[in-house]
Amino acid sequence: MRLALVHRHCQRWGIETPEDLVSGTKDEAVAAVLALLDLLAGEGPANRFDAVVEEARRQGVTGADLRTVERIKRLALSIQARLERRQQRSAALATLVDTASDLASPHTVEDTLKIITRRARLLLGVDVSWVTLPAADDDDGALRLHSLDGHVTMLNTQLRLPEGAGLAAAVLAHRAPLWTSDYLTDDSFRHAAELDQWIDAEGLHAVLAVPLSRGTAFAGSLHVADRSVRHFSADEIALANMLAEIGGVALSRAVYLDETLAEMSALRDRLSRAEADLADARGLIEAQGALLALVLDGCAPQLLVEECHIRLRAPVLLCGPHGTTIAVSGDLSGRGEEFTPAEKATGVLLDPAPVLLQDGIWSVPVLAGGHHLGALYVQAGPALTVGTAALLRYAARVVAVLLSLQEGQAPVDGRVRDELLEDLLLSVSRPQDLLERRARRLGIGLDQPHVVVIARVEGGAQAHAVSRASACARRLNGLQTTHESDIVLLLPGTDPGAAARTVHDELSSLPGSPPTVSASGPVSDPGAVLHGYREASRCLDAMTALGAAGTSASAQQLGFLGLLLSDHGDADRFIQSTIGAVLDYDEQRLTELIRTLDAYFDTGGSPTYAAEQLHVHPNTVARRLERIGELIGPDWQKPERALEIQLALRMSRIRRVLRERDEPAGDQDA
Fold it and tell me: Are residues 579 and 509 in the same domain?
């Protein structure tokens, strides 16, 4: 093939062929020509061709023969250069085909960019290559370097080019390849300080940049660089362009592939969420059916709360409007009074959505027709799933239905209870054994201590208050009725003040003004219920007259006023509750605190005059008064307490005088 090329070139330029030289020239010229042809055939180096010509000159070849040998040398070198270019082009095309084949396989965007930069560096035989793309997190036209290959420093990490800087910006503006033989000394484009610093650190000089496009859109630019000053040939620029075009197509496919994978991942996530939501919905429907079945079967609140515990997989507590525990399942016993103030502080009592209170405990109110029946508490952790939140809201509604049904259920039983309490309040006496039998049929022991509570409700909430009071009475195993427009309850217990507070709290959540509640007792037989009612009624009237409407109190809590209102005035209890601690102290320690207290009030509250009357030092009186304050409270000198204390002192003195008067008579009779 090489000899055929030699023949064609000899004929083209009118040069004698080797055969002509053999017939008409010296043997030395022929030998030189054959040597040149051997070098051409063997792809010898260029300096060997020059050596053959020099050898022919030394052998005496001159004149036309020497010129012919030199011309054949030049012709051979030209043929060799063309063949080398063809081989390089063929190798480059093969590399491009391999690159295209490699890029045809599915790759991510990052892997595609790495393949492009690696093949660009190897294809053009340069030191460093990289791709510049628009910054994804900026909309101001900034560019960022990606997928560097061949670099030796780390200054390129997250290297960002401002808008209009570097060869990349020039390529973006011209949509054509651009190159420079020495980047840092070239002022034909705008430089960027960070990029120049990196170029200098890498020792780069010659840089070629070609556009990297995705279809009709410009995606970025492909860069190759050498660490020496050089010029890029047309073939190199063309190869870089072809690689950039192939890379642009592959990059477009990779972007679409990444987007497709992202969409598929999002679809898988949505499918997983949908399946989870479907499972939650099925579980929610099943749980709703189970809870509703319990309510329809007439279960107790405790059974319903236990089922909620199982379904929610968390401890559950059901409380009344003011923190009174109705039912509990799990480790939340006795914490209702702790949670209720927190609910009031956040204003969530009438918000049906679950609210996080503390320690992973969630609260949802139990509402019926805008009325607050209580709250459901669940220790479900710091966050609720959608299914758990929905089940918690539904559980609260089911509990509200159950409590509402209990308030309105068993009308016959309710009438029987109302009639029993009404009979107990009649002034016409009924057989006591008959009343006790009727009470026992209702599960109530009238021979046990009970307190009588009266609630007076103002405004239009009377019907709701009656329903709420009836539910409270049933829950506490008591009786309830309406008598002379007031709500009357007979509740088991010995503390009328506590019972009054309980009823007051139960009815205070209703719309309108808070109720006024009074209580008396305890009573332990059916005949005493009427007396307890009258005492509570007088206490209620006294509270209204004193401007204490909207509060709760018992006759005992009204002090000496309660003593006056009581059917059975208990002077001993009044004295003991007022100054009993001082009397006990004197008796145990043989002190004279009561005598000091008498002297203090007799002298108009003057410690000095009291000391003169007692014949002691004023400091002694002061110390005794301090001890009295420790025993009966620091507010004992306030007018209201002082009046009760003086009344108790006088009653105690009269009782002591009467007892001392009766003692001799008793001795004489003996």
Answer: no
SS3 content of the chain, % helix, strand, coil (to 5): 60, 15, 25
One-letter identity of residue 279: A
Buried b (16+ CB within 10 A) or exposed e, 613-632: bbeeeeeebeebbebbeebb
In a domain, 419, yes or no: no
In a domain, 289, yes or no: no
DSSP state of 75: H
Whether residue 478 sits in one domain with residue 449: yes
Q: Model's pTM, two decimal places?
A: 0.39
pLDDT digits (tens, 9 = 90+) for 466-490: 878 887 887 788 888 888 788 899 8
| HSE of 475, CA atoms in CB hemisphere, 13 A | 21
Lowest mean pLDDT among 8-12, 271-275, 491-495: 8-12
Report cis status (omega within 30 of 0) of the bond before 315: no
Domain assignment present for residue 277? The answer is no
Which stretch of DSSP H or E encloses residue 462? helix 462-475
Q: Is 541 found in the same domain as 440?
A: yes
Q: What are the residues facing 438 on neighbouring strands? A: none
3-state secondary structure of 402: helix
Q: Give a yes or no: residue 464 inside a domain.
A: yes
Per the CB < 8 A criterion, the answer to whether 171 and 211 are in contact is yes
- CA nearest to 219, candidates 121, 127, 147, 280: 147
CATH code where residue 514 lies = 3.30.70.270
Backbone angles phi, psi at 132, to 5 degrees: -115, 125
Distance (Å, whole) CA 217 – CA 172: 11
